[in-house]
Amino acid sequence: MTTANPQLITIRFPNLVRVAGETIEGHVDFNVPLARKDGIENLRFEVRGVIRTQIYRQYGDAGIVHKETVPLFSSVDSLWTPESPDTGSDVVSLPFRFKLPDDLPPSFYRWDGTVRYSLEAVCERPGKFHPNRRARQIFSVTPAASKNQLLAKESLRQGWTGPWKETKKEEKIRQGIWGEYSHVYATFSIPDLPSFPIATPIPYSFQIVTETKTVDHSDHPDDKHGHPLFPAPPTLSTDLTQILCRKIECRVRTDNIFSRTKPKYTHHEKRTETFDLQKNRRLEEKDRKAPTDYGQTESITCTQAVEAIVDEPEWIPKDHKSRGIWRRSVRFTSTLTLPFAPTLSSETIDWQYILQFVVPFPGLTNNFKLEIPLELGPGLACPPPPTGAPGSSNHSYADVLPAGPAPSILDLPPAYWGEDGHDWDDDKKS
Fold it and tell me: Which stretches of sequence are listed as region Disordered (predicted)?
């Protein structure tokens, strides 16, 4: 919350994650004597949501930031005028109520792409040299979960008993540039769901199976000198890397000065954010051509303890009993809790998620990589309207209510809550 004059005007609005379709309400505390003394002619209140993208381009020695703002909604209401009835109190509490649209995208913030929501109370003063007084508050929004999404969330919370979806990959590798290949097989298993609710534990298993090249039976996979036969599977979760990638594309449409038949020219910017799920931290971005809103790594809790089940090596004879291969298998199981904005596709910004496992083996280009696309969906039901509001009731629209209170923040950096970049459309800035 920001206030130009806390004695004049203050917004009272709980800082919780709001759900698209929800009816929000709060109060504006307004000092009437100070307002009359300050020449306030009107107190207006605005609820607003925007998607804002900006792309940096270098043209010779000069750099230009191309910008575009797409309005999501805007509602303006007058709360007070000098003709409003006198309540007999110096400070009046003026209520506001507004129903958020049903199809809002999730809050999001990066330097080149933002989805942001705000409240603004403006005390209008006449005259060019009399700046308006204002108070502002930013809030966050997530899409509403459907009934099926809430049922899936509850099933995950209680322990998944439904079908699983497997992603498999096989790859041939060898330690040198010559000779027979060894084999690596990977299987990733996750509940078979079209999307996964955010901030909800998701169980998974990741199995690695390795097969050596043809060797003598006497070549035991774990020799006494500590040099296991190639390729040895990882036996500790720290031996592999678990990464969540968020691939973001921002677009800015600008006037095309070189063509009358094509009035708009679209600038594109793609980049990938990475989160180390084992170390529970956001990784710093490399080779950025424009400013970034993360100057350092950030802690994000995603992964619980990982359990490793190591099978005994299995000998598989070939043409001769003394010749064959050693097969080794390790299975890792754990849960992922991903507190990120649900997957989005819109006119000017979209993002998607890819889960990535990397298993390093000795030798050049022997990093085994398995990628699994993940669609993240909302996990909160739209609350019923407040008591007394049109359509109010004692029940949510969904049969299954979310457990526990809504989180206060969903992967939003401090810059989201600042005032810069909101494009508040008032011609007299205070």
Answer: 383-406, 411-430
